[in-house]
Amino acid sequence: MDEAPDSETGDGTEGSEAGETAGLRKIIHVDMDAFFASVEQRDNPELRGKPVAVGGSSGRGVVAAASYEARRFGVKSAMPSVTAKRLCPDLIFVKSRFDAYREVSQQIRAIFGHYTELVEPLSLDEAYLDVTEDRLGIGSATRIAEMIRQEIRAKTQLTASAGVSYNKFLAKLASDQNKPDGICVIRPGMGAAFVQSLPVRRFHGVGPKGAEKMARLGIETGADLAAKDIEWLRAHFGSFADYLYRAARGIDLRPVRSSRTRKSVGGERTFSRDLSGGSELRETLETIIDIVWDRISHNGVSGRTVTLKLKYTDFQIFSRAKSLPQPIREKNAFAAVSRALLEEVLPLPMPIRLMGLTLSKLEPKTKSDGEEPLPKRPDAQLSLL
Predict the structure, then answer these.
(1) Which residue of 181, 208, 293, 320 is surrounded by the most CB atoms within 10 Å?
(2) CATH number belonging to domain 23-32+99-191
(3) Is 17 one of the catalytic residues?
(4) Options 126, 151, 268, 283, the catalytic residue
(5) Which fold has domain 200-246?
(6) Which pTM does this prediction carry?
(7) Counting beta carbons within 10 angstroms of the beta carbon of residue 201, is it exposed (0 to 12), middle (13 to 18) or buried (19 or more)?
(8) Helix (H, G, I), strand (E, B) or coil at 217
(9) pLDDT tens digit sequence for 181-210
């Protein structure tokens, strides 16, 4: 089971009615629709209306993103390219262009800033906004969400979906409810009922293997989960239990964090199938290197320690790190250390279901490093699922 979102509340024993509405805020979660693929279709009219995958098309390639036309055939991110091509023979592969995606992301964040200073980006294409006290005095989070979606469409020719609710957990669930190009509002008092109608697979942090374990225990929906007491959950899910207990009741007291000290920058990918071969692991590592370095560059930091993370099929987590005397300031240096870490552990003792990279012991880049420092953004796990 994947890690749960950061928790800052109690021991998981809040009452559902009081806990659900505690810390009431006006939260919007904005999520761009098929972002990478949509940018490619916007910039190349020949791709519009066609199934598109961003990523490598070689036998060892992996899909980084898929258009909605491709998703209708079952193509999804983290899927091996050969599998995607088998599902959709007419699939068109395009190489990723992170400079283009980042440029659009900066446009979108400027739009967010018109309405609130409390913006917490999760990745290039999604963010939380706290509009409890919005800058323009509009007062209605739903109205603000609609205005943001309209402005994004007008300025970028792209669509975004939005979720509006009174906490982050519910807003994120809501943004996925009416995709693409939709909005969903979960009002105070409605959160618990909404969550309990959902399959547990929709809960952030519950991956395919976690959902399978829950199914074996008779848990298919949020209502099934809410029927279990905290001690039963702790007995079966350990430290993950407190998050599950709150989530099943629509409880989340985490604030939107517009700034905090960043300790690391990283990303990880959970695979649609277990991987073990050296060639496909190396291919996947290259994709993760590209994505993580883009985040490192965007945050204007350098760091001294690179960590490779692997999660085996039995859910054991293995990591190996290397620290350098001088900060890593160039992509080729980061890539070289990352590749060396992987080579040190090959061949693997068993297949893996997840791989990740992290750069830590960070410090801001300076002008002498050859780049102007960029504004920092909040910590967030990169979503590669």
Answers:
(1) 293
(2) 3.30.70.270
(3) no
(4) 126
(5) DNA polymerase; domain 1 (1.10.150)
(6) 0.70
(7) middle
(8) coil
(9) 999 999 999 999 999 999 999 998 888 888
